[in-house]
Amino acid sequence: MNTTQSTFTEHHNKLSISAKQAAVLQLTPGLASLPVFAVLAWVLAGQGIPNIFALALTILLVEAPVTWVIMLRHVRRETGARLTFATAFPWTASIPWWQYLLIGLPVIFFSIGMIVGVDPRLAELLLGSIFTWVPEWFVMHPDPSMFTSLSRELLLMLWGLMLVGVVIIGGFTQELYARGFLLPRIQHLGKWAPAYNALLFSILHLIAPWSWIAFFVMTLPWAYLVWWRKSVKIGLFIHIGMLVFQWLGLTLLVFGLVPSPA
Questions:
Q1: Long-range contacts for 35-42 (Cβ within 8 Å, ≥24 apart)?
Q2: pLDDT tens, the chain, 262 aa long
Q3: What whole-number distance in Å separates Cα of residue 82 and Cα of residue 104?
Q4: Is-contact 119 217, C-beta < 8 A?
Q5: Which residues contact 235 (CB under 8 A, 6 or more apart)?
Q6: Are 88 and 73 in contact, with CB atoms under 8 Å apart?
Q7: How far apart are CA 58 and CA 182, in angstroms?
Q8: CA-CA distance, 249 to 258, in Å (whole number)?
Q9: Are 11 and 79 in contact (CB under 8 A)?
Q10: Is the dihedral of CA 140, 114, 169, 230 positive or negative?
Q11: Three-state secondary structure along the chain?
Q12: Buried b / exposed e across 93-123, counting CB within 10 Å, b at 16+?
């Protein structure tokens, strides 16, 4: 083994954090984002603008910057090195392209099924019982009719904001942080590491605790795939793929390119 390989191996062997520390690191961006989202959602509601755009702004202004600062500081304390893809994300094994299709696509469709079919029913049940105290302007509803009051120009601008904030920046940042950064550092938990990772990732979404169950079940398969293949690349493929399909589907409905379901 040459010097470069030895240094790389030593670095990866030092990657270990406690379950408690993982919880703190995972939930910190969510805690920082919660009050900002609440304020933005309330302000936008007063303007008749759906709060999905408050989410996009919150990701760009708070969640993504906080997440990257945490990773930067942690890597420096961990190794004394600067943040690079190699120092931050150790699980980057190559995967044949056909496995993305054979394994990744079914998980994407399963995840979309959870978000579209299961999550709204669970959310309705929980919002009508445990979370009745949550104001209406705070809750995000995937209803295309919410966007009909917006002008075409404003809608196009906000739609681009959602693509950049939620799908691209949000998707990449969340997946790199949860599965690329944190999951390898709790691999000492063995086969429970992906389940714990999926649980923490679900709770990260403090703006929607009524969706935690659906998020956990949705995230569990791809957390185990990343753990099994030792590659965050499959996690990125699934996470970004799911968000892109959702965004495209909502785009078709909102812009009247396909008829809305009855």
A1: 36/61, 36/62, 37/207, 38/138, 38/207, 41/137, 41/138, 42/137, 42/138
A2: 444 334 444 444 467 899 999 999 999 999 999 999 999 999 999 999 999 999 999 999 999 999 999 999 999 888 777 778 888 999 999 999 999 999 999 999 999 999 999 999 999 999 999 999 999 999 998 677 888 888 889 999 999 999 999 999 999 999 999 999 999 999 999 999 999 999 999 999 999 999 999 999 999 999 999 999 999 999 999 999 999 999 999 898 888 765 555 5
A3: 32
A4: no
A5: 175, 178, 179, 180, 222, 223, 225, 226
A6: no
A7: 22
A8: 9
A9: yes
A10: positive
A11: CCHHHHHHHHHHHCCCCCHHHHHHHHHHHHHHHHHHHHHHHHHHHHCCCCCHHHHHHHHHHHHHHHHHHHHHHHHHHHHCCCCCHHHHCCCECCCCHHHHHHHHHHHHHHHHHHHHHHHHHHHHHHHCCCCCCCCHHHCCCCCHHHHCCCCHHHHHHHHHHHHHHHHHHHHHHHHHHHHHHHHHHHHHHHHHHHHHHHHHHHHHCCCCHHHHHHHHHHHHHHHHHHHHHCEHHHHHHHHHHHHHHHHHHHHHHHCCCCCCCC
A12: eebeeeebeebbeebbebbbebbeeebeebb
- Report yes or no: 63 and 32 within 8 Å, Cβ to Cβ: yes
pLDDT on residue 141: 81
